[in-house]
Amino acid sequence: MPILNKDMSLCISLSGRPSNLGTRFHNYLYDELGLNFVYKAFSTDDIAAAIGGVRALGIRGCSVSMPFKEAVIPLVDVMEGSAAAIESVNTIVNDEGVLSASNTDFEAVAQLIDEHALDRAAPVVVRGSGGMAKAVVAAFRDRGFDGVTVLARNEQAGRALADKYGYSWIGADPAPGESIIVNVTPLGMTGADADALAFDRASVDAAVAVFDVVAFPAETPLIRAAREAGKHVVTGAEVVALQAARQFERYTGVAITPEQIARASAFSRETA
């Protein structure tokens, strides 16, 4: 990485619980490509002041994570289609003081639906009703899926999400069927829910494809069960790498290859 200098472009992330994934991903590629950029993760208790700093200090790019994805909306100048579609922001680009917002989570999920050739005629069950679930459900709607069901214990949030995109809500697991099943909850995530299976094995065995948005670990209990059952899988590791790659290209204007994305993703997951 270049020595810090006055001409270096700064990109940051703002999150309630910062991690090293984005920091390692972006800085790895800056180094590999010889770009005069540096990326640093931050947390804040004052999102308005933080975004004001992005504008005032000429910070080139800003990744936005929970709990700030909706709070930043009134603080930006331009809402691109991906952010406007789900009323949620995860990426801000600063062009000489003009802040443009997008949502690369939505873009990544939509791209992966295409790349994995998920069957638009298949019913889809999405477990979850939070901010990332909104990105996932909106991406399925954007890609022409009609038969999507939101599975959420929180009836108010689940119904609101389903209604927003013209889908249905259920509060309990449906009978196993030939569905695309999608987990957008912390079940299976490193930590307290690490051993949890987001869908039971009967549902996995009956599914036509299994999609787990949990990014860490890459091989969640649900993904392992799906691989054992011989199912087509889409992983959260793919989502987080692709959304970061789209951020990288917005910040730098440099297109990167799938091989570079894979290397940066692998590096970002290495333990220090």
Please give a structural write-up.
The chain folds into two domains: 9-102 and 239-269, Leucine Dehydrogenase, chain A, domain 1 (Rossmann fold, 3-Layer(aba) Sandwich); 107-234, NAD(P)-binding Rossmann-like Domain (Rossmann fold). The longest helix has 17 residues, at 236-252. The two termini are 17 Å apart. The protein has 272 residues and is α/β, with parallel strands linked by helices. The chain contains ten helices and twelve strands.
CATH topology tier name of the largest domain: Rossmann fold
Class inferred from helices and paired strands = alpha/beta
Note the gap between the termini: 17 Å
At the fourth level of CATH, the homologous superfamily of the largest domain is NAD(P)-binding Rossmann-like Domain
Q: β content, as a range?
A: 15-25%
CATH class of the largest domain: Alpha Beta
Rg measurement, Å: 19 Å
Which runs of at least 5 residues are low in confidence (pLDDT < 50)? none
- Which percent range fits the helix content? 25-40%
Largest sheet entry: 6 strands, mixed
Compressed to H and E, one letter per element, the order equals EHEHEEHEEHEHEHEEHEHEHH
Described by the principal axes of the CA atoms, the overall outline is globular
Number of domains: 2
Strand order of the largest sheet: 2-1-3-5-6-4
Calculate the mean pLDDT score and round it.
95
The number of helical elements comes to: 10
Strand tally is 12
Annotated CATH architecture of the largest domain: 3-Layer(aba) Sandwich
